[in-house]
Amino acid sequence: MLRAQTLVLTMIAMIAFAANSLLCRYALSHSDTDPASFTSIRILSGAVILWLITRLRTPQHGMQGNWRSAFALFGYAAAFSFAYVSLPAATGALLLFGSVQATMIGYGLMHGERLRGVRLIGFLAALAGLVALLLPGVSAPPLPGSVLMVGSGIAWAVYSLRGKGATDPTAVTAGNFCRAACFAVGLSIIMLPWSSIDLAGLAYAVLSGAFASGIGYVIWYMALSGLNSVEAATVQLSVPVIAGAGGVLILAEPLSLRLVLCAATVLSGVALVIIRK
């Protein structure tokens, strides 16, 4: 049984993660903000809030991180934004979550981990669910956006794997966000002829970067101290579900039977892999 504080922190973190999908999708579909500007503002606002948290918490140690991890973080955020130009919130969250887990599981297999029995069935089921979602059809998501979101998930998995074992995750995340801001500014300069932003888009990007990303990650790290690895992996199964519900209720997005079945297959498969006896 999780302690009450850990449970509350975990719930807030999962809502924050799902909120990133909703805020990005809403900004790109209900404002004049372009994906490059949204990415830059999101990363910059996240960097500012994490820098402030780091300075207030451990001013003597400062920020950590490295440029390779920062580039993976930027790649995740940029592909995420451009993918949501065409993807519904629920589909995007499922593709992101599924590709993250598939990449991390594949990395483990390449480095000696083995899947047998029920876990192997779960892994194959998760892959089958993702493939079924992407197959051509009336309700299939747009291929360019889907490819971008899968790439975003791979980049986030790389970032997560590079950050495993960090002694001070908050300081590492703050340093990576500040470095990633340099790449984000470069992207905005390249995309300047096509740039567009309004106050609504600016507000959504700041909310996504400073709160759903920056503070959301800090809350998640606080929750991790009360979760074991299985619990931490399992609770993240809720993110696509929360994003899907928000997409239907807030963004009035349609919920297709194909998406429901594929989501159930992917999430069930991942659950079988990460929940051990």
TrEMBL record:
<feature type="transmembrane region" description="Helical">
    <location>
        <begin position="143"/>
        <end position="161"/>
    </location>
</feature>
<dbReference type="InterPro" id="IPR037185">
    <property type="entry name" value="EmrE-like"/>
</dbReference>
<feature type="transmembrane region" description="Helical">
    <location>
        <begin position="70"/>
        <end position="87"/>
    </location>
</feature>
<feature type="transmembrane region" description="Helical">
    <location>
        <begin position="117"/>
        <end position="137"/>
    </location>
</feature>
<dbReference type="GO" id="GO:0016020">
    <property type="term" value="C:membrane"/>
</dbReference>
<feature type="transmembrane region" description="Helical">
    <location>
        <begin position="232"/>
        <end position="251"/>
    </location>
</feature>
<keyword id="KW-0472">Membrane</keyword>
<feature type="domain" description="EamA">
    <location>
        <begin position="144"/>
        <end position="274"/>
    </location>
</feature>
<dbReference type="InterPro" id="IPR050638">
    <property type="entry name" value="AA-Vitamin_Transporters"/>
</dbReference>
<keyword id="KW-0812">Transmembrane</keyword>
<feature type="transmembrane region" description="Helical">
    <location>
        <begin position="201"/>
        <end position="220"/>
    </location>
</feature>
<feature type="transmembrane region" description="Helical">
    <location>
        <begin position="173"/>
        <end position="195"/>
    </location>
</feature>
<protein>
    <submittedName>
        <fullName>DMT family transporter</fullName>
    </submittedName>
</protein>
<feature type="transmembrane region" description="Helical">
    <location>
        <begin position="257"/>
        <end position="275"/>
    </location>
</feature>
<keyword id="KW-1133">Transmembrane helix</keyword>
<dbReference type="Pfam" id="PF00892">
    <property type="entry name" value="EamA"/>
</dbReference>
<dbReference type="InterPro" id="IPR000620">
    <property type="entry name" value="EamA_dom"/>
</dbReference>
<feature type="transmembrane region" description="Helical">
    <location>
        <begin position="7"/>
        <end position="28"/>
    </location>
</feature>
